[in-house]
Amino acid sequence: MPKRGKQPPPTNQPPPTGGVDLNNVSRKLTQLLRHRLHENGLSDVLRPDGYVPLERVLQLPQFASRHVTVEQVREIVRTNDKQRMALTEDGDKIYIRANQGHTADGIDADALLQRVSQDDAASLAGGRGLALHGTYHSAWPAIVSSGGLKTMQRHHIHLAVGLPGDAGVISGMRASSEVLIWVDVARAVQAGIRFYTSANHVVLTPGRDGDGLLPLDFFARVVDAKTGREWRDDGWQHGSPPSGSEAAWSSSSIAVAAPARLPAVMDAASSSAVASSSAAHAGDRSNAGDLP
Prior knowledge:
Elements: H1 22-35, E1 52-53, H2 54-58, H3 61-64, H4 70-79, E2 85-90, E3 93-98, H5 109-112, E4 114-115, H6 118-127, E5 130-135, H7 140-146, E6 148-150, E7 157-159, E8 179-184, H8 185-190, E9 196-197, E10 203-205, E11 213-215, E12 219-224, E13 231-232, E14 235-236, H9 245-248, H10 268-286
């Protein structure tokens, strides 16, 4: 019987990394494509839909010095659990972009994203018209004080179509979020506030025209993610949460309620917390590499 020669590796194996830390490259790509396109000399090749030539990106020192290849970038984009980036080809050119989370100028939301119609909005959360914004207790006083959610440094406020782990939820909020804000997207769209969805199924809004605010009036429910307590009547409700509270706040079962009454003026103790929490509120929007 003839000897078997050495078998080639299966073709579905990922390309060799060549000693390159692909996680590090992924973070650098996300930072570049969301926030630092102009600082890296890509203004002249930036398309309205956020795409830039991959060839130009790989010529930048932070990638050229690591000898990052097209195949490695393809692998990064393919395996990213949040699907933060996308590749497209036009003729013999390959382009790359971030799917959402931008602060860089020169990107047209209507070219980058899909506009949410009234019917689209009404179909969210199993026909309840809701989407979910996750934040932290440290940021909550500043959200209340400012009158709602703001875009901060980013172009859009980010929302998810459900809780992390729900079917179809890829990105839109951190799994570590402590405060869950269910937003009545259907009512907000009806009121004239623009909403979009990204290629990785994040719900996005620039907020109200003029000030970039998504007002408290459109908060359907606010829930402590750990305890299931609701924010109502100017404070967190005491006592035990309802039985099965975790399921009660899933996107498939939440019922639309009248907006929680949120204070227009905070008490002295809460007001003193705003200064320290404002930075956290801003950080919720501007953390480049690891935001949903």
